[in-house]
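Thread: Newbie trying to understand structure tokens

Hi all, I'm a second-year student working on a class project, and my supervisor (Dr. K.) asked me to get a predicted structure for one chain before our next meeting. I've only ever worked with sequences, so writing a 3D structure as a token string is new to me. If someone could post the tokens and maybe explain what I'm looking at, I'd be very grateful. Here's the chain:
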Amino acid sequence: MVDLLWDDVKCFFDPDLMGSLPDVRVPNASVEDWQAVLDLVVEKGWKCQYSEGGTVLPVPRAGAVLSRPADAECPDLRVWPTDDVLTIFRFLADDEVDFDVDLRELQGQDRLDVFCRFLGEIGRRLGEPVLMDLEGDYGHPVLGFDVEADRVVLLADPQVR
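---
Reply by user tm_fold:
Sure, no problem. This is what the structure looks like when written as tokens:
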């Protein structure tokens, strides 16, 4: 069973209308939640690459990354849940797990299913909603993993064309 149908949500995945890099986030997170995400990446065997600046490094513990000096360059963790879908986690704050996806990689039902499974894995592990805001529209999620429903659901009305 699929969480969302492509024809119902494709407007939210149109890079020309919505911007190509929406923000995906888990609000009200903690360092422990960040660590749980790092552990999940390893457990699932997802390909990943951690870097600070242009330097690729081994994936550290979440506490070490999030306690870096305020003027340090923001590290990122690139995670590929499949070979053709990239997510980029940014360690901006310890109270919100956030990452970007490229809508150009999420076209069609198959890729939407990959994305929904990925959100579900994170949401189930943390027991928290995972929300997607359109690029530049932080705080107004259009879809997300709903813990109680145990699936990704629409949180805004799709634009009718």
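A couple of things are worth pointing out once you decode it. Residues 54 and 75 are 9 Å apart (CA to CA). Strands lie at 23-26, 47-52, 55-57, 76-82, 85-93, 96-101, 130-133, 141-146, 151-154. Feel free to ask follow-ups in this thread.
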